[in-house]
Amino acid sequence: MKNRDKMPTYIRRAVLAVIILITAMAQITKGGFPSLFGTRALLLLPLTVVISMFERGFAGMIFGIYAGLLCDLFSSSHDGFYIIVFTAIGFICGTLITYQLRNNIVTAMLLSSLSSLCVTSLYWFFFVLTKKTDMALYLYVRYYLLSALYTTAFTPVYYLIVMKLSEKIKAEHSTFTF
Question: pTM for the whole thing?
Answer without folding.
Answer: 0.85
